[in-house]
Amino acid sequence: MATEKPPLKKRSVVSSFIYKYVDENGERKPKVALFRRSDKVNTYQHRLAVISGSIEKTDPSPLVAAWRELQEETTLTAQSLELLREGKPYVLPDEDIGREWTIYPFAFRLKDPEEGGKGEGGITIDWEHESWGWYDPFEVVDSDEFGGVPKLAESLRRVWFEKDLGEAAGKLLAEGLDKLKHDHQSGARQLAGVALQTLRDIIATLDSPEPSDEWWAKVRFAAWHIWKNGRESMGAAIMNALVSALKSTEETLRQHKEHPASAHSMKWRDAVLGDLERRISLRGTDSVRIISESFAKYLSDGFAPEEGAGRLIRILTLSESSTIIACLKHAVLHTNACFDLRVLESRPLFEGVSLVGTLTNELLATQATLHEAEADPNAPPKLKITLFTDASAALASVDVDIVLIGADRIAASGAVSNKTGSLPAVLSAKHISPKSKTVVIGESEKVAPPGNPADHVVEDNDPVQLLRAWKSEYNSDRVRHTAGTIARVVGSEVGGEATSGGFDGTKVAVSNVFFEWVGPELVDVYVTEFGLWTVKDIERHSGTLGSEVDRLFKDI
Predict the structure, then answer these.
(1) CA distance between the termini of the chain
(2) What burial class does residue 74 get, using C-beta atoms within 10 Å of its C-beta: 0-12 exposed, 13-18 middle, 19+ buried?
(3) The Nudix hydrolase domain covers which part of the protein (predicted)?
(4) What pLDDT score was predicted for residue 529?
(5) Could you please report the per-residue DSSP string of 313-337?
(6) Which residues contact 379 (CB under 8 A, 6 or more apart)?
(7) Which DSSP letter does residue 492 get?
(8) Pairwise CA distance, residues 64 & 455, whole Å
(9) Is the distance from CB of 92 to CB of 103 less than 8 angstroms?
(10) What pTM was estimated for this model as a whole?
(11) To bridge 295 with a disulfide, which of 101, 327, 426, 476 should be the other Cys (CB 3.0-4.6 Å)?
(12) What pLDDT, in 10s, does the model give residues 460-513?
């Protein structure tokens, strides 16, 4: 009688690939570091591998585990490495050793010494490896001859998408991701448009006479990377736009397979590209108009005008959202209310100041309308705007009726991720003006699939954005001198980056986190293109979206 095999022991691990770029014959070529495992490890002795290790229960995320293993096995830290990409996790059963691995792949770029890093001279291997070297990622294969650990190439392709997509399409995807990562001016809606344009360009490059399963897998693979490796702090809007486009592409492919000889079906590729181009050109036009009308109706229903005069509505907001600007402009022009608008400056990039500039410029063309409203010398101005420092959020909250915030991401629970400063503004208003309402403005595409908001990526941005403000000539000598000292202590500013550092046992770091969460218990209403939503509506939409995400991306 055959003996039953014991169940495989399940273990979650990270696999971290370190890349650098070298010049070969005038071209910039990638190289990946592979490490030969020593005879002191329990599994896969003398096989080529990457930096890997278990994800502990105490690790807040797989990425935290990846950084820890990198430092333990190579001594490299964030001063010498930057996260380049993450790959889609996958499960690898290995019955030979009785394990089932869940692998979380990551790719890191090795910084040059000119960028403040230690370069490859900073790589010091520990007992787990006996040697290491640089390899061409396109030559890494899963074969006995190559000598890698099981599924090494599979893990690599999940972060090095050029291997699947080809160099031309891979280059377009890398450029698109770079654009998304470094655009700190555009909002989530605009970045979703950039994501669609990137997908369109990739599809145009993926030449195929027929929409094969392989072609469709590559398209979904590219879309997944645009979602996860572009600007994940705004990933909900990007993902929603991509999922909607993929569903439309899927329908085009279905029609082609069912009626391959029809004239329309023969042009399946043109139909896919045409649909994406229409989505890009019409990006958000209708939804913003409908949201603006919904917001105006909310104001009219909730803030009835006083007898004989337009009601004065006091609104506090921050940062710069094109949708909020559209809503405010529409409310000023199309309601009987007068508005006392308080705007927090929104450091370090002062988006609140930019919001005021954009709103006033757009209203210049409608001065006649505003002047008519102010014909009565005793009437309050149609719109009064006051800019406040971020630190004076409580002062700006006095007698406020509405705290108006945008949404870069809305969790299934109804929690809202928005520009840092949103939570202090909401809490200040709830304390200073208890009757005030917190109103979230955002398209339904800002809603994310089900998941814990705490697992969402924390976008800690370039400290130089803060140092630059502190070094301003308008500051005192002491502030400017301190800014210079901090810049030297935390690390190099070459390339516009600064990292944590220290001296004599003192560690100094500069935190520049862009987004924070506002809990659903603090939100009174969500204004969307479908009208006024509650947390129940958010949950329902998130669940539907989660099912589509699982279906489209589960097998790539």
Answers:
(1) 39
(2) buried
(3) 9-158
(4) 93
(5) EEEEEES--HHHHHHHHHHHHHSS-
(6) 309, 310, 338, 373
(7) -
(8) 11
(9) yes
(10) 0.80
(11) 327
(12) 888 888 888 899 888 999 999 888 888 776 654 433 344 455 555 677 888 889
